[in-house]
Amino acid sequence: MPALTAAILAAFAGYAGAWYLGIVEGNFALLLFLATVVTGVYWVAERLYFLPRRRAAADGIATQAEERRTQLAAQGITQVDTPDVGAARQKLLMQPWWLDWTAGLFPVIITVFVLRSFLFEPFKIPSGSMMPTLLVGDLILVNKFTYGLRLPVLNTKITEGTPPARGDVMVFRYPPKPSLDYIKRVVGVPGDEVAYLNKRLTINGQLLSKDPLPDFLDEDTMGYSRQFREVLNGRTHRILNDDRQPAFIPGADDFQFKENCRYSVEGVVCKVPPGHYFMMGDNRDNSLDSRYWGFVPDRNIVGKAFFIWMNFGNLGRVGSFE
Question: In this predicted model, what pLDDT tens digit does every residue of 109-156 receive, in sequence order?
Fold first, then answer.
């Protein structure tokens, strides 16, 4: 067992190292699931097989010592060297290293697995596409049950939950490459006609309000962007526009249901198909979103982002957001 365990741990370490170096495309959900299964098997084996064997061996040490004392006493020998039975029993009862690194970690790993798979998952914001709502370096929590519970790894929905609504900030699997997680705002739900023309958003023929705010300073680039207050589905959030960027959508990919979209020099108009969502970043002129790669199918949904739990560069960022 020590050799087998060493090989299993080496395989996990090798996979993690290759992922870190970019040699393979990692899948943390799969890695955590496999770690839960492997450590769970060791935990069960420890409880049902290895621990009873160690206890039996420890009890045997005590029994042998008692039998030896009884035999010597029967011969009239009372002054004998008494071995430290307690220390010997303790040594026999200790988990070997290969069980410490498997069965011993199972309670922690399964707790993380359950929390991450069905309740809350942490994410780090990697880009500025959701500025000013979310900044690079924000560490956020994603609610995994609001939109319905899903099986880990497979992402198959097992409960209905509440459908995503316009204005929600949602994490999803990037449709062109589902191994990547993206975060954007839900702008269109199934059946909506979404128009983004001349940098104005219209939903089902209704032009959304866009009230000017003081310019926004991006402290990373030390550049300013025009900032506006937008009301979507009765919920207020801020957006950015860059006057240097054109209104038309350059380089849109081919994607499923692209025939539902009409592109022009003014922008794009799309009819959201059933079971799909139209997503946009709040940093409207610096966001690779549904305007470029299409609609997000329901099966790609990960969860609803709702809370910034840390930003090491700015502790004032901690809190909820719209």
Answer: 999 999 999 999 999 999 999 999 999 999 999 999 999 999 988 888
Which residues have C-beta within 8 Å of that of residue 191, sequence separation ≥ 6? 272, 274
- pLDDT tens digits, 255-273: 999 999 999 999 999 999 9
Please name the residues in contact with 76: beta carbons below 8 A apart, sequence gap of 6 or more: none
Q: What is the pLDDT of residue 84?
A: 60
Q: Which residues are catalytic?
A: 129, 184
Q: What is the pLDDT of residues 22-75, one digit of tens each?
A: 888 888 888 999 999 999 999 999 889 888 888 877 766 666 666 666 665 666
Q: What is the value of pTM for the model shown? A: 0.84
The neighbouring-strand residues paired with 169 are 185
Q: Return the domain boundaries, the chain.
A: 2-113, 125-320
Taking domain 125-320, whether its CATH number is 3.40.50.970 is answered by: no
